[in-house]
Amino acid sequence: MGASQSTPQQDEKVFTPDTSLHFSEDVVNQLADHQASPEIPPDRQLTIDAHIRSRIQAELGRLHQEEERVREEIERALEKENLDRERSMAGEESASEDTTSAGSVKSSAVLMGDLEELRQKIEKYHARQDSEELSDVRAKGEAVAACYRSHPSTTLDCWRAVEDFKASVAQVEQRYVNSLR
Known about the structure:
The structure is a single chain. The chain is mainly alpha-helical. It is 75% helix and 0% strand. It contains five helices and no strands. It has helices at 3-6, 25-36, 42-96, 108-150, 159-180. Helix 4 packs antiparallel against helix 5.
């Protein structure tokens, strides 16, 4: 009873044209050649390649943007986590004992300020050193060079200028060593 409904019908319909169709041998050969070798024409291949390249570039651009967005989110999350950790550590340290102890935890902003202050002090120190002490050493070094130029064949005549130069260098070195103590 239900089996007759699920079986496919075997009625095939065949249409026969009233006129006969004839194809030239060139058309038949061309169709046979295309069927035998499914080669894509060069201009069609170039179009397909260009389309594929453009889709790849678009996808690559989208992936780069997505990667940049994810990287920024990660950096923001890490920065927030680090600031929270620094605040909690600084809060625990100040709540525990003396906040002026050498082991107190400082935030990165405070540390950056301290580093900048140290850089400025070092620059001032180097500027002072260059202007006061090293000018004498430079002058004596130039005197030695001038003496050698004026006495090219008798360089031993410049021994006094050399000794003055050595003494000024030793004096600057001694001041530097004493300043480190």
